[in-house]
Amino acid sequence: AELSDRLPIIWLHMAECTGCSESLLRTDAPTIDSLIFDYISLEYHETLMAAAGWQAEHNLESAIERYKGQYILMVEGGIPSGENSFYLTIGGHGKTGEQNAKEASEHAAAIFAIGTCSSFGGVQAAMPNPTGAVALSKVTNKTVINVPGCPPSEKNIVGTLLHFILYGTLPALDAYNRPKWAYGLRIHDLCERRGRFDAGEFVEEFGDEGAKKGYCLYKVGCKGPYTFNNCSKNKFNSHMSWPIQAGHGCIGCSEPDFWDTMGPFEEP
Ligand code: SF4
Ligand code: SF4
Ligand code: F3S
């Protein structure tokens, strides 16, 4: 496809671990190279672009200018804000992540918060939130589509993007602005161990006979009944596996404030 056919994307990193970018790189349908060469024009992404230093800053500014009102903004990471915004400065001129996120939001055609950090604050915002980290939706008045998960699966990231590319519209959203096609059902509704739950067959402690037989993980801390996501359907790493298949309960990673409200993640 011509460059002009491809949707310009600006991806910003805020306070985060880059796990969401790692997840994006695992996409297999389309593959990451097909995504970048056939569907999108990735104008700015600090861990994937070749540019560095002043050239990188220039790329960001000129992409915003050139594609005003046309580009998709994708943001990874919580955003230290207000009087704490100095905890994240980018580019060596004392410019804060908050300023970058605000400016890039202003001229975006659509805004996606990728991961629980940018959707809800995430681990950065866990009590006592020393850097004052907030969700992207707190620093812009524009609509933010949240694609949470720590990280979200590559399917949920790319699916949300492709939906916009194919239909030119935003997907139907739930009360937390998550796309319903991905976050409409509970982990517990779609879990391959649900039959075990219904039969009262539980792992009592990690490593026991029940664990070997694939029993339900509820008694060892699984938060699947309280978590909305499609992990069992789409899985991770090109459809390889997901937490419960690997033998650990869901820790509620796509829910707001899960670090503070879903623990302990393993019952003793
Ligand atoms: Fe990392 Fe999780 Fe935040 Fe993504 S949501 S940047 S994986 S901590
Ligand atoms: Fe529900 Fe978790 Fe048990 Fe699966 S492992 S059935 S999500 S409680
Ligand atoms: Fe997260 Fe639970 Fe899925 S911990 S990855 S929402 S199984």
Give me the secondary-structure topology:
Layout: E1 7-13, H1 19-25, H2 32-39, E2 40-44, H3 53-66, E3 72-76, E4 79-80, H4 97-106, E5 110-114, H5 116-120, E6 133-134, E7 145-147, H6 154-167, H7 180-183, H8 187-190, H9 194-198, H10 209-213, H11 231-234, H12 258-261
Parallel strand pairs: 1-2, 1-3, 3-5, 5-7
Antiparallel strand pairs: 4-6
Helix pairs in contact: 1-6
The structure holds iron/sulfur cluster (2 copies) and FE3-S4 cluster.
Explain this structure.
There is one protein chain. The chain starts with 6 loop residues before the first strand and ends in a 7-residue tail after the last helix. Helix content is 31%, strand content 11%. A 5-stranded parallel β-sheet has the order 2-1-3-5-7, sandwiched between helices. A two-stranded antiparallel ribbon has the order 4-6. It contains 12 helices and 7 strands. With 268 residues, it is of the alpha/beta class. The longest helix has 14 residues. It has 2 domains: 181 residues, Rossmann fold, CATH 3.40.50.700; 75 residues, Cytochrome-c3 hydrogenase, C-terminal domain (Cytochrome-c3 Hydrogenase, Chain A, domain 2, Irregular), CATH 4.10.480.10. Helix 1 crosses helix 6. The site of one iron/sulfur cluster (SF4) has 15 residues, from helix 8 and helix 9.
Gist?
This protein has helices at 19-25, 32-39, 53-66, 97-106, 116-120, 154-167, 180-183, 187-190, 194-198, 209-213, 231-234, 258-261, and strands at residues 7-13, 40-44, 72-76, 79-80, 110-114, 133-134, 145-147. It is globular, with a radius of gyration of 19 Å. 44% of the residues are buried.
